[in-house]
Known about the structure:
Oligomer: single chain
Strand content: 35-45%
Amino acid sequence: MAPSMSLPVMFKHLAMSTLVAAQVSLSFPGPSGFDVCKPTDCFDAKCAGTPVEFKGTKLQLSTWDGANYSLVGDIQAYSLVQDDFGIFLHGPLFRPAQRKANDVLPSVFVTGSLTDKIFRFDDFRFSGGDVSANMKTVASSPGPSTMYPIPPAYEGGPERLMVAEGNPFFLNPGNHTASMWRGGVQVIDEEKCTTIFPVNPLMSALGRVVNTVGCHDSGFCFFSVWKFYDDSLPMLLDDCLYWCKVNAINDPTTCIEVGIVEDDQGTPICHVNGKGGVHGFKIGKDDTSKSNVFDIFLLFTGQGTFDKGDSEVYKIQLQVDHLGGLDSKPKFVKTLSKAEWGTDLWKKTVEKPDHDVGVDHAWIDDDGKYVWVGTFRKQNNGVHMLEYDTGKLIHSVRGIADIIPGKYGYTSGLSGIGAYGKPGSYIALATCEEFGQQFLGGHSAFVLLDISKAPGNGSTIIV
C-alpha cells in the first residue's frame, strides 16, 4: 500500500492504535483477523453479480530518451469508480485461464484495502465506447493488498487466493466486525481462511503488515513486510523481505521453514533509513542452466509522502534448496547476485533529492521482454515500461492523477495479460486517493489500460 496520511495524523493514530491493540491482545490471544476474513457466497463466482460500466477515457503515453520525455499521444483506458471501493484499491490479479469464449477480458480480482473487501469482475464486453462487466464481492479480508492464485482444493472447485494483508493501525471494520489485527498472509477458500504467516505465536496474535505476496514453483513463497511510513516514523519491528517454504505449493497451509531473505553479502534485506524497505516485488524468469535459480525484482520505498521520499529498484538472483544445503550451515534461500535496475526511472525522471517517483508494484509481460512498474508520487505518477534484461526505461503512461476530477489519485497496483503491441493486451491498474478524501466523498478508480494499440492511429505499436 502506498502512503496515505500526513505525519501528525500518523503519529496520533499510531499511538492510539498501538495502545488499543495491546489491550485487545491481552484478552484475545488468537489472531483476531479471523473475525474479518471470510469468503462470501460469491466466492465460487456463480452468483449473478452487479452490472458495472468501465467508462472510456484517455491517458498519455510518453517516450523516454535517456534525458527527457516526449509525448507520443493518447492511449485508451477504461475507468470504474464504485462506492464499495473506498479510497484504497490494491492488488489487481488477472486470471487468464478463467476467460470464457465471448469475454473481452478474463476474470480479474482487486482488493479494497480500507473497506476490507476482495472483488472479482467477470463477463467483460465492449459497450459502445465503454466496457461492461459483472462485479462480485468474493471475500472479506483485513486490509487486503496483493494476491497469489492457489489451485482449487478439488476438481471443479473455485481457485483459492493467498492474500497479503496489512493494517498498521490494527482496527479492521470489515465484515460487520471491529477486530484488531495488523495483518499477515492468509489462504482463502470457499469455506474458511487459513493463516500461514506470521508463524511465531506472539506475532501471529498481533499480526505483521504484509504488502506483497508471491510464490515460485519450487515451493517457496515470499512476503514483503512493509509499512507506508517507513523512514517517516520509528518502528518497533523492522520491515523485511521474508521467505517461506510451504508444506505444498498447490495446497499451502503452513510455512514449515521461514526466514528473512539475505542479500549477496549475507545482510538481511530489511528497512534501512534513507532507503526504505521492500514495498513490492515481482518474481521473474528461471535460470534454465541452474536448478531452482530465478530472478526477483525488489522495489524499495521509504517515507509516507507524495513528493520527497526514497525509491530504489534491484534485480536479484536467488537460489532455493528444500534440504537447506546451500552453505555449510543449513540455508534454504541464497542470493547469488544483486544489481541496481531501472535507474533512469528512479534517479533521472525526477530531480533528486527534492523529489522522488515512489516505486510501488510491478508486472512482467507474457513475452518476458518488458517489466511494467507503477509509481505513486506526484512528479512522475503512472506506470512505466522497462526492458527486463537491461532496465532501460522505454515508455511512461501518465494522467492517472486526473481520472477523478479534483482529487489526487495514484497508481497502487497492476496486473496484465499479453504484451505491449499485441492484440487483446491490457493492464489492470488499481488506484488510491490521499487519506482524508473519504470524508469528502473520496473514491478510487479501477482502470483497464489497452496496451495493444499505438496512440492516435489504432495500429499495432512497433518498438
